[in-house]
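Lab notebook page, bench 4
Experiment: in silico fold of construct C2
Operator: M.H.
Input chain length: 327 residues
Purpose: comparison with the prior construct
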Amino acid sequence: MIAERTQQLMSKTIVWDNHACMPMRPGDESFLPQLQRHRNAGVNMVVVNIYYDLFEPHLAFGMLATLRHWVQNHSNDYVLVDTVTDIEQAKKDGKLAIAFDIEGCNAVAENPGMVELFYRLGVRWMLIAYNKNNKIGGGCLDDDCGLTDYGKTIIDEMERVGMLLCCCHTGYRTAREAIEYSTKPVMYSHANPLALCDHPRNIPDDLITACAETGGIININGVRRFLNNDISTDNIVRNIDYLVNLVGPDHVGIGLDYVYDQEEYLAHVRARPDIFSGIFKEGDQLFVEPERFPDIAEALLKSGYKEEHVQGILGHNNLRVARQVWK
């Protein structure tokens, strides 16, 4: 049972999950009603993926069409996000605000003009690579090639239109070069400290610090493999503590990376072990579920965090960065 203090805090907080995964099946709306789970958990804003580099770029538009159509047809409960004001209004109206993300720049590999098009359709952050190298830069499970000249062109375009740059799934060299090149806040949308779990998808201290120094934010994920196979709330708080002690509470958020259709995702893992590289152990609970948000909030309060810092971690830090970057 969540304490009244926690309930009151969440009632006045914009709770933001920075990454959730829906099936990559354009035209299939069958899983979308499960977004109600986020809403029931007290989440006010969720960023849903519409593409990652495993697929052909055109799939992203089919996913956007499917998600936007469903949200617009369920406008009593959900709202498509264009501006920060839309999120704040959704909170007042008791609706779940929804924006989109792209995992890997293959979607824009042939045309920088695609960046603005995706932004206009609701994509609010994009990461450089999905584990493997691409035309933009290096992946974390590859021989990292570094940020390319074309990658700099894409970052310039992202900054021009207001799209956040994310360095998750990206090689350390490329991430360092991208953070150094960027002039806007950069973020890790769903990543954990390397110091607490030795996996190349996690991030070393120097990149955590470099990201924070841009004014950006590191969002803890809830993927079992990246949490040393411990998805307890205590371990989530342990990872948050590590980041807070390193860069302060204003640069920490949450992007659980919860996958709604886990069977489909496991099928991708089995089919392409070169991309996913042993991320999952079958039979385990793979992800921290969205229903955990109130428990995380309560655990942070019990740990002695100030209420304003808990609000920041739950969502207000992501809100601040959105205000700084979105246009």
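Observations: Strands lie at 16-21, 45-52, 78-80, 96-103, 123-127, 164-166, 186-188, 217-220, 252-254, 258-259. The longest strand covers residues 45-52.
Next step: discuss at group meeting.
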